[in-house]
Design goal:
By secondary structure, this protein is an alpha/beta fold. Helices cover 51% and strands 16% of the residues. A hairpin with a 5-residue loop joins strand 5 and strand 6 (137-139). The longest helix has 15 residues, at 161-175. The relative contact order is 0.20. It binds BIS(adenosine)-5'-pentaphosphate. BIS(adenosine)-5'-pentaphosphate (AP5) binds next to helix 1, helix 2, helix 3, strand 6 and helix 9. Residues 11-17, 32-34, 37, 54-55, 58-61, 66, 86-87, 89, 93, 124, 128, 137-139, 142-143, 158, 167, 195-197, 200 line the site of BIS(adenosine)-5'-pentaphosphate (AP5).
Length: 211
Amino acid sequence: MKTRLALFGPPGAGKGTQARLLGSRLGFTHISTGRILRQAKREGSAIGRVARAYIDKGRLVPDEVVYDLAARAIADAGWDRFVLDGFPRTLAQARWLASCLDGGGAPLDSVVLMSLSDDRVVARLSRRRVHKVTGENFHLDSKPPPESERSFIIQRKDDRPEAVRERLRIYHETTRPVADYYRRAGIMTVVDATGSFEDVHARIHGLVHAD
Ligand code: AP5
């Protein structure tokens, strides 16, 4: 079984949704740099204040800001049984991660590229809503938030159309090429991210258990 995973893919591919399922069903620690940064932003910490301008416009936060957060989260997970969501996103981050994990004697087992067209990304993100306390993702069509929680449900600033366009541009220019790094390392698999939550989970679950 693979126990050190990274979910990779465009914004809105379902990385967070699937990482949560791996957490609840297989006991993986879900490490989302986006979630950690949003939390820092809400708390108004020094990192949060730096991150705010980048996140709200859909740009990548500088690599150096993310390294510390990622290193701490991986160490807190005990260097094993974790799933990275949204990290790494640049070639420099991928190289940093390799050296960080090698240092802990725990290289990545598998990188899953969740493949989704830009049109579907826009359809998913424009209808996404988030619980402002728990951070849980909803979708107005495929996973509507419960009526009782309505007052806690918000739309992320970076899900506005202009920020989504910027995130997609950065994904294609900067993040997508990182897949070649993992393809060369022989640990990357492409998974179709269309279909229901359970369909996609079944594909990833199969991969996690494959030899
Ligand atoms: P982050 O939070 O990581 O955003 P992202 O990668 O753009 O991904 P999303 O959270 O938008 O989408 P997702 O793939 O998790 O999809 P989800 O499961 O929500 O990062 C945010 C920002 O932080 C970045 O822009 C950057 O500024 C900064 N940042 C983070 N990490 C960084 C790093 N490493 N370096 C530098 N900066 C960094 O699903 C989307 C929607 O679709 C939901 O509504 C969901 O319910 C729905 N959905 C999911 N699966 C399905 C399905 N199978 N069928 C129907 N609907 C579905």
